[in-house]
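Support request from a user on the community tier.

User writes: "When I paste my structure tokens into the form, the page sometimes reloads and wipes my input. The last time it worked, I copied everything first. Here is what I submitted, just in case something in the input itself triggers the reload:"
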């Protein structure tokens, strides 16, 4: 029966090793630094920018964190033993350019190279987000990214309710809520942020109470205002992503122009009777609302939900998808709905997808952002000039 020393000696004979100076240079030249120490070791100090995967999770997690098997990887542990075994495992998985850093983090730190104490989750947070932490695509770093994210929900109604609740449950650290309405009995059929005891309360106050009771990690910032051209840019500028639950065309166009000017992605959705649609307007990386709808339809072809009705569960489904898209963008995982319009038919229980493309005649673009002026719309829905001469 071979001893650990035999196994380690055999592994080192089959891999490449570098010292800390060479490892640091490789990382400076673009190689990935992979830290395979245990979570408690990592929490006491790490190299900034390192990818942390504990040795016991390496085989099951590496493909989701480093998919390129030809990527140059410097593997580090505390002293150089576990990293050597990790490189041997990586070789067996088809990774061709991984090396072990002899001396590991201990030598790196002793030599005065750059390191820091990373942000980590508390014991209570590890319990709350346990199901996220077991996902290789999320893990501790992903959960910390969620806790550091700032998402603005426009509306605390049918779409905003499920979106905000799932974003809060996921641990999005700062949630902004914009709404200037009060809770009405007719809201309760679909607006699950509220309840009958809060009828007559401000919606933003009701939303904040629900969300903070759900997750104490979340800071809820309320904006009890009517969105218009005078405040749109100022409000959305403090957030990373906007989840659009508005139900009127003037606000959607003003939001589009402000988000394009500031480069802030918008997770857009709309609902009507039994149908919903969702897409992501990312002004830096895809089409926007004005590309999809250069001009609003006439009022008679665009009745509101109050006029046409909506199945109460529908916004729950659509708003949850909005939250999912926002979370994917924060984590940088999956295929986000940029340039894709997802249409849901609740009666048929079917999803359809349509491609969206930039409109060559649209002048409200990221490239023209310095010329964009957000102005009130003329009349009910007619677009006004938005690009300064």
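"...and here is what came back when it finally went through:"
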């Amino acid at each position: 029966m071979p001893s650990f020393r035999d196994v380690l000696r055999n592994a080192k004979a089959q891999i490449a090793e570098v010292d800390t100076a060479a490892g640091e240079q490789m990382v400076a030249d673009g190689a990935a630094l992979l830290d395979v120490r245990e979570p408690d070791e990592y929490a006491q100090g790490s190299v900034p920018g390192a990818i942390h995967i504990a040795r016991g999770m390496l085989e099951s997690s590496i493909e989701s964190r480093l998919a390129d098997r030809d990527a140059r990887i410097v593997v580090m542990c505390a002293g150089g033993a576990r990293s050597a075994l990790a490189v041997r495992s990586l070789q067996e998985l088809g990774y061709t350019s991984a090396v072990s850093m002899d001396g590991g983090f201990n030598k790196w730190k002793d030599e005065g190279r750059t390191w820091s104490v990373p942000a980590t989750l508390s014991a209570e947070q590890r319990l709350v987000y346990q199901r996220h932490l077991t996902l290789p695509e999320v893990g501790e770093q992903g959960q910390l990214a969620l806790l550091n994210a700032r998402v603005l929900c426009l509306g605390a109604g049918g779409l905003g309710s499920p979106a905000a609740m799932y974003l809060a449950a996921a641990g999005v650290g700062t949630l902004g809520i914009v709404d200037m309405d009060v809770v009405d009995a007719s809201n309760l059929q679909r607006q699950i942020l509220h309840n009958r005891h809060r009828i007559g309360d401000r919606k933003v106050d009701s939303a904040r109470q629900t969300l903070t009771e759900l997750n104490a990690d979340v800071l809820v910032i309320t904006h009890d205002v009517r969105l218009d051209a005078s405040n749109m840019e100022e409000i959305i500028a403090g957030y990373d992503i906007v989840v659009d639950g508005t139900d009127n065309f003037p606000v959607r166009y003003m939001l589009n122009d402000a988000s394009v000017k500031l480069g802030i992605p918008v997770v857009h959705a709309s609902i009507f009777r039994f149908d919903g649609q969702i897409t992501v307007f990312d002004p830096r990386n895809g089409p926007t609302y004005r590309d999809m709808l250069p001009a609003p339809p006439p009022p008679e072809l665009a009745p509101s939900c109050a006029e046409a009705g909506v199945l109460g569960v529908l916004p729950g489904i659509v708003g949850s998808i909005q939250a999912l898209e926002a979370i994917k963008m924060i984590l940088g995982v999956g295929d986000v709905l940029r340039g894709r319009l997802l249409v849901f038919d609740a009666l048929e229980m079917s999803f359809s997808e349509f491609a969206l493309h930039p409109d060559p005649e649209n002048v409200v673009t990221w490239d023209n952002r310095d010329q964009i002026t957000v102005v009130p719309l003329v009349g009910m829905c007619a677009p006004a000039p938005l690009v300064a001469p």
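Agent notes: The reload is a front-end session timeout and is unrelated to the input. Residues 4-118 form a domain with the Oxidized Rhodanese; domain 1 fold (CATH 3.40.250.10). The chain has two domains: 4-118, 149-371. Escalated to web team.
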